[in-house]
């Protein structure tokens, strides 16, 4: 299993993670920052690791259709040589709707990509796979350090742990809103769930597999669905929701803090850190 990620990390789009933010997250005690929609050249990874001393950086994810495995492997080797043991390569097949006609046999495409990473010397324990369905979850345990599921509930975490068994990394993402008013929290969370995720087949199919139906998915998502996917409340209430993933078998939870447009996220991360690391 990958060591040193900490129980709690931060998930954020790559373009929004600056060296300054990385330093602040490290200071607050978060073990890892996950870069959403990461570029395979890993230049941002270099910048963030150079700006910090202990923080680990993971990609969540590098899309296998966008970045050739040999180029990603070369970038991995560069980062690893400069910052040994502080980078975790997350890869995944993305979404049919975004990739288009090239999206053919995604499971086999991931297998082929892993074969290429093997040939280029990227170690199994230095990579994770974005996994939702049981087949991909199982593959993540067989061919990588573990699974990084996105937009999932603790019920999914429990199922994934059962599939993976012990000693394999399970690091789900969890959206949170620091807002005690349910309506205000949903106003922030619903748009971030609806677009694009409620219009992407793989996420919708996964939600249906865990008991949500067409009425939950329609019209931006039912209150029941949004409340299941976006933890809300004060820092203590959110900590309790995050810990449901740990109790279900997660080793690490990647926290995606959602805020109103234009709000500085640092106060929110600070409030969470004070509760999480008390």
List keywords for this structure.
single chain, 278 residues, alpha/beta, TIM Barrel, 9-stranded parallel β-sheet, two-stranded parallel ribbon, 11 strands, 16% strand, globular
Protein architecture, described:
The protein is of the alpha/beta class and about 280 residues long. The chain has a single domain (about 10-175, about 240-270), classed as Alpha-Beta Barrel (TIM Barrel). About 45% of the residues lie in helices and about 15% in strands. It contains 13 helices and 11 strands. Strands 1, 2, 3, 4, 5, 6, 9, 10 and 11 form a 9-stranded parallel β-sheet that branches. A two-stranded parallel ribbon has the order 7-8. Strand 1 (about 10-15), helix 1 (about 20-30) and strand 2 form a beta-alpha-beta unit. Helix 3 (about 70-80) crosses helix 5 (about 105-120) and helix 8 crosses helix 11 (about 225-230). It is globular, with a radius of gyration of 18 Å. The mean pLDDT is about 95. This is Putative F420-dependent oxidoreductase. Pfam families: Bac_luciferase. InterPro entries: Bact_Lucif_Oxidored (IPR050766), Lucif-like_OxRdatse_MSMEG_4141 (IPR019922), Luciferase-like_dom (IPR011251), Luciferase-like_sf (IPR036661). One of its GO terms (molecular function) is oxidoreductase activity, acting on paired donors, with incorporation or reduction of molecular oxygen.
């Amino acid at each position: 299993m990958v060591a040193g990620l900490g129980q709690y990390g931060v998930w954020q789009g790559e373009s929004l993670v600056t060296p300054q933010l990385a330093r602040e997250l490290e200071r607050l005690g978060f073990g890892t920052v996950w870069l959403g929609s990461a570029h395979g050249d890993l230049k941002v990874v270099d910048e963030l690791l150079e700006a910090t001393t202990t923080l680990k950086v993971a990609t969540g994810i590098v899309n296998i259709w966008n970045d050739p495995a040999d180029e990603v492997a070369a970038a991995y080797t560069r980062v690893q040589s400069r910052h040994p043991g502080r980078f975790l390569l997350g890869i995944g097949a993305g979404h049919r709707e975004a990739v288009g006609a090239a999206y053919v046999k995604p499971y086999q495409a991931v297998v082929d990509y892993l074969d290429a990473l093997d040939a280029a010397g990227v170690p199994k324990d230095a990579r994770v796979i974005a996994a939702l369905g049981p087949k991909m979850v199982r593959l993540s345990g067989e061919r990588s350090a573990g699974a990084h599921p996105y937009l999932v509930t603790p019920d999914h975490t429990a199922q994934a742990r059962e599939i993976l068994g012990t000693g394999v990394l399970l690091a789900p993402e969890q959206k949170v809103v620091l807002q005690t008013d349910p309506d205000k929290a949903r106003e922030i969370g619903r748009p971030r769930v609806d677009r694009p995720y409620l219009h992407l087949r793989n996420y919708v199919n996964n939600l249906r597999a865990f008991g949500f139906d067409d009425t939950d998915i329609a019209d931006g998502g039912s209150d029941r669905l949004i409340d299941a996917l976006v933890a809300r409340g004060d820092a203590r209430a959110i900590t309790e929701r995050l810990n449901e993933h740990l109790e279900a078998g997660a080793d690490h939870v990647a926290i995606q803090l959602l805020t109103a447009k234009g709000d500085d996220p640092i106060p929110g991360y600070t409030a969470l850190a004070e509760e999480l690391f008390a």
